[in-house]
Amino acid sequence: MKKITLDRTETIEVLENLALADGPPAREGAVREALTELLRPYVDEIKVDRLGNVVGIIKGTDDNGTSILMAAHMDEIAMLATVIEDTGQIRFTTLSGLDPRMVLGQQAKVLTREKGAFHGVMGALPPHLRKKEDVKKLKINDLFLDVGTSTKDETLALGISPGDFIVFEKGVRMLGKDRVMISAADDRVGCLMLVFLARHLHDNRPKNTVYLAGTVQEEFGTVGAATAAYAVQPDAALALEVSIATDFPGVPEGQPKIELGKGPAIVIADWGLIVHERVLKALQDAAAEGKIPIQYEIAEGSTTDAAAIQSVRRGVMSGAVGVPTRYIHSTAEIFSLKDLEASLRLLEGFIRAL
Q1: Catalytic sites, residue numbers
Q2: Domains of the chain: which residue ranges?
């Protein structure tokens, strides 16, 4: 069996197709279009459901084989405009977990319904004008998006209104030979894995049928994964994700170590899932067989699409695999191409081991 090997230049080109598209929860259309076109040449069938999930199907050689769903979410961290101030700035609420410290000063854009995107910067009352005791107490409702206007009427004239989605500006940049800095690595890295899995399985047909799903609204409650799983009725499933790397200063003592360059992270448990024992064994067997380094994650403050998938219909044996990534839910997340390649090899081995 030929090993999955990534070409760096090609990988970055495909990643840019996915990562530079805007995809707030429930508005993933641009990402879905890019992912669909990347999957289409390599799958036997492709479908889009009412919620907007896209599912590519690679039929296995064994009609009695195990059916496997691989799910990566297309949406990203985002905000929703709530109030336009008299001075023109836009207040917002969040649609996913956001740390205010990561937001202030970042470039973002508001996606209007009819007039396209307008760019701006996240602002707040500067420390010079805040009470000393309040400087370190930044909250989301202290922040606003400034698109360069000076009055409410100017902002409204641009076509901006409450209910418009706000996303961060995007970019992809290499850091050295192996590391990639990207906004929305969560979860365009997972979508990227769907594409390269499709390419590999197209030429190396597995016995098990594989469903490759780009799901919607993971960041707003794992909404799409449940309907995608309900439709395809898989026996087993993996969420393809990023995992929270802890190889930087300030990580609390006793926190499990997850490092860039040390291989994919298998999620043992998070706040919505305990990995199914058969799924865990198949992942471990695949890692041993392929001599793939692996790490383990216990995520106490987050969950993935697998949490929604596991309880669909009669139940789905579920787990999650993540590419270790620094600074998740920020505008500059960092991962390793080495870990991406190892993750793909692990997933391919899992498909054959289950």
Answers
A1: 218
A2: 8-76+183-353, 79-168
How far, in Å, CA of 325 to CA of 331, rounded? 12
Task: State the residue for tokens 């030979």.
Answer: 177
Going residue by residue through the chain, which has 354 residues, state the pLDDT in tens, using 9 for 90 and above: 678 999 999 999 999 999 999 999 999 999 999 999 999 999 999 999 999 999 999 999 999 999 999 999 999 999 999 999 999 999 999 998 888 888 999 999 999 999 999 999 999 877 665 666 665 678 898 999 999 999 999 999 999 999 999 999 999 999 999 999 999 999 999 999 999 999 999 999 999 999 999 999 999 999 999 999 999 999 999 999 999 999 999 888 888 899 999 999 999 999 999 999 999 999 999 999 999 999 999 988 889 999 999 999 999 999 999 999 999 999 999 999 999 999 999 999 999 999
190-209: string of b/e by CB count within 10 Å (b at 16+)?
bbbbbbbbbbbbeeeebebb
- Residue 271 CA to residue 304 CA, distance in Å, equals 9
CATH class of 79-168: mainly beta
Fold for the domain defined by 8-76+183-353: Aminopeptidase (3.40.630)
SS3 content of the chain, % helix, strand, coil (to 5): 30, 25, 40
- Give 246's DSSP letter: -
If DSSP states are collapsed to H, E and C, what string results for 96-118?
Answer: CCCCHHHHCCCEEEEECCCCCEE
Query: Pairing between strand 144-146 and 117-123?
Result: antiparallel
Q: Which residues pair with 174 in a beta bridge?
A: 180
Provide the 8-state DSSP code for 305: H
pTM: 0.94
